[in-house]
Amino acid sequence: MSKKPKRSLIERLRPYVAPFRFDGSGMFHLKSHRTDERGGLDKADGEKILEANRKRLNDFQEKLYAQDRWSLLVIFQGMDASGKDSATKSIFEGVNPQGCEVISFKQPSAIELNHDFMWRAMTALPERGRIGIFNRSYYEECLVTRVHPELMAKEKIPRKLVTKNIWRERCEDITAIERYLSRNGIVILKFFLNISKQEQRERFLDRLDEPSKNWKFSMNDVSERARWPRYMAVYQDILRHTSTPFAPWHVVPADHKWFARVVIGSTIVSALDGLNLRFPRADKASLQEFATVRKALESEGGGQNKGKADSKTKRAAKVGKRVAKSG
Length: 327
What we know:
By secondary structure, the chain is of the alpha/beta class. 49% of the residues lie in helices and 10% in strands. The protein folds into two domains: 9-273, Rossmann fold, CATH 3.40.50; 284-326. Strands 1-6-5-2-4-3 form a six-stranded mixed beta sheet, sandwiched between helices. Mean pLDDT is 91; it is low at 322-327. Helix 6 runs antiparallel to helix 10 (228-242).
């Protein structure tokens, strides 16, 4: 009996990616997405997938950095206590910090308010070969500013441009910019951490009960919580109008942190696997140069290592000959 063909990595991770991906096709209703989904897994199984994804991500990150062609932009959006910080810490554990940068977007500074709403995010985009993680993002200017219209005055936009169409226009502008970025080699993955109001309450209480977590809490969190229905309505509108095949949204069930990390990690790994990343190969000229360099280094060993150096030099010469013949 013939063996079944081995499934690709993308196929193996598909159950933890596809159900939560929305690319703008079809209808979208946020209430139809469960916040407590576990994908048929228990926590132990989830931890195994998470650990495997960490190793895969570390390997892909090295190739991404070495190839220096693509870059990855990961965007996290969600209500307070939805797990954005902890997801970043857990999923990217072990990844070389030289190739990865986390940017947290908080209340705009005076300098940032003197520019267009996309300016501060554009200056923080990842370079080629790197991973950029936005903890909140330019989407805040379609979210918080929409829930709190009084903040719009601080952005100094000419009054005649602030019309009833401004939120639709901002979504159109964001979509156009994301299309431009994707056409220039930036892979965009957007995650909305979909937490229930009840689970947020439990996490807030946990922050109050543990002294080491008190610093995370503020009364502003409670006041924003009172606007929950408004935030959910705005998030739904944002996801409907800014989900595209080149920059899809992933609605991540966030009540169980371990499963949220399975979904996010699997999505990132699948996207990187689809890029066919490879370590750059040295050309013929470089290989010949390597043989010369090896010979020079081995000659530094002196008389006591002469026999050993001669052996290695012969091997280097053979390599050089093979390279020359292959050319």
